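Fold this complex.
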Amino acid sequence: MGKMIEEAIKVIINNDRGGFTIPTNRLYPHQWNWDSAFTALGISLFDKTRSWQELIMLINAQWRDGMIPHIIFHQNDPDYFPGPDQWKINAKSKTSCHSQPPVLASIIWQMVKRGNEYDKLKAGTLFNSIMAYHKWYFLARDPSKEGFISIVHPWESGRDNCPDWDIGLENIKIPNDISSYSRRDISHVDKSERPTKDHYDRFMSILHFGRNCNWNKTIMHFGGPFSAVDPGVNFIFLRANKDLLLLAKHLNYIHVIDEIKNWISILNKGCQKMWNEQVKSFTAFDRRNNCFSDAITNASLLSLYAGAGTSKQKKYIVDHCKRILDICSYGMPSLDPNHQSFESKRYWRGPIWCVMNYMIAIGLEDEGEYKIAEKIRNDTIKLIESYGMAEYFDPHTGVGLGGKDFSWTAAIYLELCKEKIDVSLINNFKNKKNGFNKT
Ligand code: GLC
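Structure:
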């Protein structure tokens, strides 16, 4: 078995905190929603029981209204900000108070599709929770039944400081008492690779607002400081519903099939809201300022992953992919390098994220664009083999940035190299796992 495959497994095992996996030590010491889902996909290639456990721990944190939070604080860690006391819905709060891109159903479908009866059984036990989660998205994030999801915080997009949110953030009034917090992230990672202080003040302003209204869904949606239609969340959600439908059919859950089909048709129509004719792409839309973002991002390219758009729109998106790949050494940057806000090293304003590449490649392949899909997968493998399991990568130089030994990067590496994983060696290898030092 390749050395890098062993390395990837080791990274994930070292980030295991007892049934759930942290993204990386110190910088992100809790359980994150979509990180955990992608990580479970990677784990399923070497430890099936443990991969379902990861998802169960995530789903156990589901709120009564169906929401699965973006962070679960299983233990206290003063090294992380903003912790549970900042979100605080009540004294016992153990989670953040909004969600993250709902990849869960798609990950579960992947695990079932390539699995056996055991996986089918596990998926069956989680199915109702996923249904409740998807219902929550419609109720809480599309209460006027417009056909698309609106997020209440940039963090809900998982693409925290993307230029898509600049207009919305700029117009947020920062309360006077906001300046006294102390960020922890910049003590772990170079400041130039993280969101700016101004952005952070604004992130915290939304958080204060949410805390003050007890994260009331209606107040957040209609009157909160921030509301945006995110191509990432919308396309991931559309794909998740398509995958949920496949799962329902596979499990023979006939009673939910019409409901899920209806969700798919609503979202298929609704996503046209994000078609920005000016730049001939799907882009984010800011509801508070009633305007499009002019940024073509890696989330715009997920329309193919969702199978969304007309054939003309699909062609435009494929052309954007080709154009962007031509101007980068490695694909796919989080922002079009021709955009004025592009920064090759700063978080979601340019760098490559492996989980996004994983989904973009699936979308391109679905569209019959095998060559570009393969190029993106090969770039992802090359980046990881040359620069390690970094959080994200510079699309020009390839250098790994942000946190190191990142779980979802390792998981995507395993997923992309799964044919090379030698199952007969896995047990042997797993027995050694107790020998790994948890750093
Ligand atoms: C950052 C990313 C987010 C991710 C989290 C943990 O906040 O923007 O997408 O889930 O880190 O890795």
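Residues 2-430 form a domain with the Glycosyltransferase fold (CATH 1.50.10.10).
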